[in-house]
Amino acid sequence: MKNLFFFLFLFSYLISKAQPKNSSSLIANGDKYYQSASYFVAAFQYQRAAQLDTTNTYVKAQLAECYRNLQDYDNAEPLYFQLATKNTASYPIARFWYASILKDNGEFMSAREQFEQFRSETETNPDFELELYKEKALQEIIDCKHLEEKAKKEICYYSTCICVCSQQRVV
Questions:
Q1: What pTM value is reported for the model?
Q2: How many beta carbons lie within 10 A of that of residue 67, not counting itself?
C-alpha cells in the first residue's frame, strides 16, 4: 500500500513539473494544437494562458477562434465582442465573426447592424481576404433582413392562433 502511495505521489509530482508554467509555452502548445485542428485541446491551452495574462489579445483571438470552430457560440460571443470593440485595427475580421455568432443565436437585427458596421469599418482596406468577407457580409445583411421579416410573420401568426384558440369555446 505504501508503494502505491509513493508511486502516485511521484507520478503527480512529475506531471506537475511537465506542465508549462508560463504563458508563452502555453500559447505555443495552443498554436500547435490549433494548427492540427485540435480545437478543444488548443482552447484548453489558450484558457490557461489567458488566466496567466489577461491582457494578451492574441490569446483572446485564438480562444475565440477555437470556440467558434467548436460551435461554442456562448463562449465565443463575448471574446469576439471585446476584439470587435477594442481591437478593430489588429483584428478587423472579429466584427464579422461577432455578427455571424449573433445571427446564429437568432439576434438578426443586431447581427445585421454588426455586418453593416463591419462593411463600413473595412471599406477602405484593400486586403483581398477582407474583400471576400465584405461580399459575404453583404449577403448576410440581406439574409438577416429576410430572417427578421420571417420572424415577425411567425410571431404574428402564432399570436393570431393564440387569440383564435383562446376565443373558441369548448362545449
A1: 0.74
A2: 23
- Res 47: pLDDT: 95
Which residue type, as a one-letter code, is found at position 6? F
Q: Where are the domains of the chain?
A: 20-70, 73-151
pLDDT digits (tens, 9 = 90+) for 65-83: 999 999 999 999 999 999 9
- As a 3-state breakdown, the chain gives helix, strand, coil percent values, each rounded to 5, of 80, 0, 20
Helix (H) or strand (E) holding 96: helix 94-104
Q: DSSP string covering 43-86, please?
A: HHHHHHHHHH-TT-HHHHHHHHHHHHHTT-HHHHHHHHHHHHHH
Buried b (16+ CB within 10 A) or exposed e, 150-168: eeeeeeeeeeeeeeeeeee
